[in-house]
Description:
2 strands; 11 helices; mainly alpha
Amino acid sequence: MRILLWPLLSAVILGLILTPIAIPILRKLRFGQNVRNDGPQAHLKKSGTPTMGGVVFIVNMVIMTLFWGEFGFTMGLTVGVTGLYGLLGFSDDFIKTVKKRSLGLRAWQKMLGEVLIAVLLIFGATLALGRGTDLAIPFLGTVDAGIFYYILAFILVAGVTNGVNLTDGMDGLAAGCCFFSYLGYGILCFHCIGQPPFAGVSYETLTAFAGIMAGICLSFLFFNHFPAKVFMGDTGSLFLGGGLAVLSILTGTEFLLVVMGGVYVIEALSVIIQVVSFKLTGKRVFPMTPIHHSFEVENGLGWKETKVVPTFWAASAVFMALALFLYFN
């Protein structure tokens, strides 16, 4: 269990050292958060809070993974893909905060970036690692999906990265939920150590990586809990979503991620349902999306942010437990 806990603890310590250094630098560079005017009114006071704290995530992950992981293709693909998602988010944040273009990257630019990184991950796993196109389906066993695997894998990767991005809308929300998701994957990968390797994957490296990512989330909560002193930005949210996608693809647990990341699935679906409903009927299904805002706005449940966030953390913990139950049974 040390290969999970020591990387986790070391990432927490490094995060607690780096983040206080980064906050004044981000403030000096005027990397401040832009808050949407049509959102909850309580969020307007968050405007100007330093953002792009996800830069610390990237630095922490690279240093700790190089220290704790095993050098090889698993490490290269894991660090490379996760880091690229972080850099894509950084580009989006940079345009928003420095170029003062509120929407950041244009939709086609962001989509193109996500597609290219997803292709690198999926084909890197299937071709270079010989992962194949098998899909493990709970209760049904393993099936060879053939060409459909690539389609399903791409949908999964796009869904989880954007789902985490959508979840990052309240102080501590995404970091807390991702902590449980990564902890769950750390336990899963640790259980695989010593078993015949899946497609030549280093489970030791993935266990350490999952622990490091959980530690990154935990350390960030010290500064991102309400009231937040810093936000992760798209740099952090795409980075965290990308890391989960890497773990699911390399461990062959694509369907299990839908359960492990149940919160992100619900967040993404709420936005899709809202958009489709409004375009077809002119009516909104939810008071506001992503769904966590419906818990907060006055025409929704009217909860305070400090009540909504722990509720979603608890939901993420339940999804983690359910995913592990399905995996071990």
